[in-house]
What does this fold into?
Amino acid sequence: MGKVLTMPFEGSLENLSATTAPQDVSLEDAATFDVLRKMREDILCCVLKPDQKLRFGELRQRYGTSVGTLREALSHLVSEGLARTEAGRGFQVAPISLADFLDLSELRVYLEIRTLADAIRHGTDAWEAEIVSSYFLLNKLAPPRQDDPVSVKREWGKRHKRFHDSLVATCRSPWSLHFRSELFDQARRYHWLTMIHARSRRRNEHLELRDAVLARDVDLACGLIEKHIRTTVQQAASEVPGLTLDMAKRKKA
Amino acid sequence: MGKVLTMPFEGSLENLSATTAPQDVSLEDAATFDVLRKMREDILCCVLKPDQKLRFGELRQRYGTSVGTLREALSHLVSEGLARTEAGRGFQVAPISLADFLDLSELRVYLEIRTLADAIRHGTDAWEAEIVSSYFLLNKLAPPRQDDPVSVKREWGKRHKRFHDSLVATCRSPWSLHFRSELFDQARRYHWLTMIHARSRRRNEHLELRDAVLARDVDLACGLIEKHIRTTVQQAASEVPGLTLDMAKRKKA
DNA sequence: ATTTTATAAAGTTTCGAAAATCCGTTTACA
DNA sequence: TGTAAACGGATTTTCGAAACTTTATAAAAT
It folds into this structure.
């Protein structure tokens, strides 16, 4: 658990960030990306449920677009790990399982620590300002529980993501940031399920995290984020019903 | 450099690998994936050069397929980081730079170590057999140099990948394997450039690696793979011409 | 000479129909 | 009764043409 040990990226001679890491497809404004964004959000928030078959007919209605456009978006979701496909038999929402959540969380611990440590070391005033700002917004909303309306849960999820993104924003490793981001989104699916069934209330870990980061205390901050992730897994494992024996949901179709 | 420290995935209660990690899109046999595979290979081998504009007209001829299919494949390449796109102005091959190679290699070191350590701990007879077999095939071909024909370079690249894949095949973390695989492919682009300009000859690092792995010596094997990756970066940095001042190739168009 | 505006060419994005494929059911045969 | 082949409906996959955007070219205006 202990030491942080992230090696800084001082190998890279220059910080010019004209890199090759995959594009985080949000800068785009074309119609395809609208659909992609919407579908991703719907999968993350389990509007489209795990294992659900994704038929073109229905999707076409739901998102008001053509087959080709849908196909492109779906193809994208597959490579993000949010959908699966088998040649000839269409697409379906990626399954979930405790084993998967554990696996991705372990990797997340490393990537969050790695990016956070580097971000703190290269933080700027603007970075601090955005952290303060995004924390403020997050804190304004109480962490949602099972009986809160969906819109509140969604908004909280958005602010939660923004806060965590702000923490690592000045990390200079595009690849680390990219993978961190993918895993964060994956985790959001499980977070959503946890919110749905949330019984226990957690203390304000985000505030501690914010302060440690602003104090530039790398070890403390990284320790906190690690605990934060692990606690989240624990909570999900103990409070989300169908998430223990893994594949007991195949019958759901 | 030292310690290996990869934490095993003993958190995951069961090893059933019915997971959610993104599909490695090679099991597919549809036409779209043929095109995707071919295009990926062409980018990796710099047939399609970094920064090159990818016009639909030309691609359509080259791969004998329709716009829609191409678009789907390109979209996939974007999320793998092998291409870029800007709404309204099409696609282009992802740029390369030394900074990028350094960045991805640092992350690769971690992921290769993580996956290799776990793979060794859970290796089976079949795993050992495949390592022996793939090493044999790799060793039959001498590492290609600048004057070797392209077909030889390609074949060697294929066998090289197969060997490295075989080493980590029994790793039980699908997400780690997935990201490792993406980064390995990224690195292949730079390896190709190195082969083109290779001056120095390296000793047989793959043999050492194979033996360390088969001897189940985790620390040694991980140390070797780390050195292997770092050496490759060094070689590329010193022997590939345009790969020092990063963006001196914007003029190439 | 430089900027601005208009026009044409090139290229990209979207769409829905046609071809191919899969899946469940019925029919034929041993 | 059980197995295999064959049909029909549903769904996916592929395609190229139409609509739209950007880029290049040329003429007009400052």
